[in-house]
Each structure stands twice: as structure tokens, then as C-alpha cells.
Give the backbone structure.
Amino acid sequence: MMKNFLIGFLFFFPLLTFAQSTAKEFIKAGVHLHDKGDYTGALENYEKALTVEKNNEEAYYEMGLTYLNMKKFDKAIECADKLIKNKKEYVAMGYHLRGMSLDYMGKPKDALAAFKKGTKADPNYTTLFYSMAITLVAFNDNEMAKKALEEGLSHNRYHKKSHYMLGVLMQDERPQSLLALYHYLLLEPTGRLSNTAYNLILSQQKIGVEVNDNKSINITLKPIDDKDDFSAAEVMLSMLEATKGLEENKNKSDFEMFSENTKSFLQVLKELDEKDKHKGFWWDFYVDFFSDLISNDERYETFTYYISQDIKSTSVETWLRKNPERVAILENWVANYKKQ
């Protein structure tokens, strides 16, 4: 009897392994066809995967994404609900798929409800907070959108687009906007959004400073607000930009001035924090991070070159090419920040 059992088990085991590997192969083929725009072919492969492995969550998720791209939102929601019902690895992704489908169907309130449920199921799936913010912006509720992004980043500081979106939404609050955009460029130093982020930083630095035809400089400063913890840093930004016209800085390149002014701005925030022991998301999340970053001169120098990759500067490209070890050290420091 035992011999027969072993023979039966040994026969069944390779079939099980074959089924699992075949399901993965079907899903892989489906994703490839989806990326090529062959949605019908993709769905056929996902169906085959589910025939082999009935409750394969990855197959349902990819199928849902394909239906979403086909604008078959009801079908996408069916796939999402299967993932939600399972309450396993893909539950947060199921809520995200459901929320996106509802948003595209013109049901933003229902979409927000789905995103919120997803954040409770898995708060570390930061994409839910990001999608929630996008929906809230469509509602013209930028304040709640900012809070959603802040909460998402507090769970996962490596969600690139959350930094970028927060930087854009905070443009009326310059110091905070710059902090978010600097952090975005640390995670995504090249690409379309990176170029936009870098140019937005440059334009933010120039606000309040006007150079006249006779080379005189007019500075418009916001009055210091005792209730605004970043008010002093806001004033400092305009003052730093104005120093470009000083005799001692006339022979410095734009990159050198960018690097020096960025360092001064971050140093001011560090000193303000040390003096008044500020609390709150912006101080605890961003200011603490950049204070640690600038505490090491080599790390800061690498940072300025690293985030400037997309400006196509020969001096920047040359420095990065000659210092791959320094770049690797910075990337490792960022990737492991506060994980030790």
C-alpha cells in the first residue's frame, strides 16, 4: 500500500509542478501580448493560466489590467473583487484595480472608497494613496490630496511619483515644494518628469528676484510669518538667488551656484530645526533626511551632481563618469536610509 502511495505521489508531484510553471508561462506570455497591444491574445493566455491553476491571483490581476485598458470596466471590477475576496497577497492591488475602474467609469466617490479600503488592508501599498490623491485633485481638494500623499510616503518613502506630485501641489509653499522635488530627483534623476522637476526647482529658486536692464536687482520678500515654520527659509531662498549678482560669484557657473545655494537652503532648514525642534511631516520626513544628507560633504557633492544628470552638462556628465563609486555609495545610503 505504501509503495502504491509513493508511486501515486511521485506521479502527481511533477504534474503539480508542471501546472504551476505552465500557469506562470501563460501569464508571462499574456503580459507580453498586453504590452504589444494584443489584448485579446493576452486574455486568452490568462484564461489558460486559470484553467491550469484555478485561483491564480496574478492571472486575475493581469486580466483585470487588460480589461481596464480595453475599457471593459465591469469585467475589470469582477477580477478586482476576486482578489479582494481572497484577502491574500493581491488584496491591495485588487482594491486599486477596483478604484481605478470606478474612477474611469465616472464614479470618483466610489473610487475613493475603494482606495481607502485598500489602504486599510495594506497601508504599505503606496500606489493607493497616490491614486487617491489624483482623484482628490480632480475634486479640487488639493489639501486632502497632499495629506494622502504625505500618509503614503510615511509608509514608503521610495514611491517616486508621490514626491513629484507633492512638489507640484506645494508650489505656493516654496521650501516644502523644493524638498519634495529634490527627493524625487534622488529616486528618478533622468526622464521626462525629472527634467520638469529640475526646471521647476530652478524657477522656484528665482521667485521674488528680478534683474533689471541696468543690472540692479529687485528682491520681493514675503513678510516673515511667526506661524509659518518655513517662513525664514522662504526669505532665505530669495536672498540666495540675489547673491548670483555679487562680484564674488560672477565667474561661477550656473551649476556651482545651484549647488551652493541648495546647500545653504538645506543648512538653514537644519539650523532652524535644531534651534526650535520642529515637529510634523515636513520636518520629520524631509528636513531630517536632508540634514543627514548634507552632514557629509562628499555625499552632498555627489547629490548635487546626481540630481543634475538631466541638464546635459558636460561637467556633470564628466564628474559622474569619473566617480561611479561615489554614486554607488549615495544610492546605497538613500536605499537604506534609517533601515539599519
Observations:
- Residues 205-335 form one domain.
- Residues 266 and 290 are 7 Å apart (CA to CA).
- The two ends are 55 Å apart (CA to CA).
